[in-house]
Specification:
There is one protein chain. The protein has 271 residues and is of the alpha/beta class. The protein is built from eleven helices and six strands. The longest helix has 15 residues. The structure holds guanosine-5'-triphosphate and magnesium ion. The site of magnesium ion has 4 residues, from helix 6.
């Protein structure tokens, strides 16, 4: 991952603009503070991706926060090419000065070159595929799919560089680590499935999204532990001797959340 960051930084000067893909559920913690410094003068658009999974009121608070910070951002859904369509005009507007430099000298401006960067599994390759309307870049529902940088050229006037996911340089707290695992930017094994399942269950019990309540049989005063036991019972997860197989319940919960079956959760709110 250090290599991924180093190689990405080497390319920053070669591009007009960086598209930094974040997860709309973790608009701050899925960013990379080290990256910010390293971009220097290279322009950046922050893409808050997977808006489908984000809680809309919380996302609106974050959008206001981004505006206040003077950051250029777009809330997008990389699977939807209409999102991709919003990105190009904004990028072109941001490099207008560069284009004018060439036009004044009677030279056709070079292609718009953009590099897509961000944490693992945030949707970088999916976004590239939406931009080129082809399934060219490999994608997958776990961190670490893209292994090498890859240039994609579109119609000669747009060049995109896909890059492998870059891990956060440090994880500030247990809460951030577990949230990163919940969105699958880091592997389950890092916090461990048990801790991750309890973390998710705690949030679900606290925020009670409708899909979660309808899907799982949750009692009024359930605790994360008791709710996981109830889930093990509900899905018939039993070991040979008849004891509850809590590991199966944990896996069910994590998978259900990640495929969107339990509704939208808030993991962080702006200051
Ligand atoms: N629902 C939804 N799923 C998305 C979106 N963007 C990406 N995904 C899914 O998220 C998973 C990861 O997408 P990738 O494009 O492989 O992510 P990446 O950032 O390139 O990941 P690495 O190459 O591992 O760093 C895939 O299963 C995608 O289908 C989105 O906007 N909405
Ligand atoms: Mg990728």
């Amino acid at each position: 991952m250090k290599k991924a960051l180093r190689e990405a930084i080497e390319k920053v000067k070669m591009v007009d603009l960086v598209l930094e893909v974040r997860d709309a559920r973790l608009p701050f913690s899925s960013g990379n503070r080290d990256l910010e410094e390293k971009l220097g003068k290279t322009k950046r658009i922050i893409l808050l991706n997977k808006t489908l999974y984000a809680e809309p009121r919380n996302l609106a608070l974050w959008e206001a926060w981004y505006k206040k910070q003077g950051l250029v951002y777009l809330a997008v859904d990389a699977l939807d090419f209409r999102s991709a369509k919003k990105i190009i005009p904004l990028a072109q507007e941001m490099i207008k000065v560069r284009d004018q430099y060439y036009i004044k000298r009677g030279i056709r401006p070079p292609p718009l070159r953009m590099m897509v960067m961000g944490l693992p599994n945030t949707g970088k390759s999916t976004l590239i595929n939406s931009l080129i309307r082809k399934k060219q870049a490999a994608t997958g529902n776990r961190p670490g799919i893209t292994k090498n940088q890859e240039w994609v050229v579109i119609k000669g006037n747009l060049e995109l560089l896909d890059t492998p996911g870059i891990m956060p340089p440090r994880i500030d707290s247990d809460h951030v680590g577990l949230s990163l695992a919940a969105i699958h930017a880091i592997k389950d094994e890092i916090p461990g499935k048990q801790k991750l399942a309890l973390f998710l269950m705690e949030r679900l019990l606290d925020q009670r999204p409708k899909d979660f309540i309808e899907r799982y049989q949750i009692t009024e005063n359930a605790t994360p532990e008791s709710a996981l036991e109830a889930l093990a019972n509900q899905v018939g997860a039993l070991k040979k001797g008849g004891d509850l197989a809590l590991d199966k319940a944990q896996a069910t919960l994590i998978n259900d959340y990640r495929r969107g079956a339990l509704g939208r959760l808030v993991f962080e709110v702006p200051e």
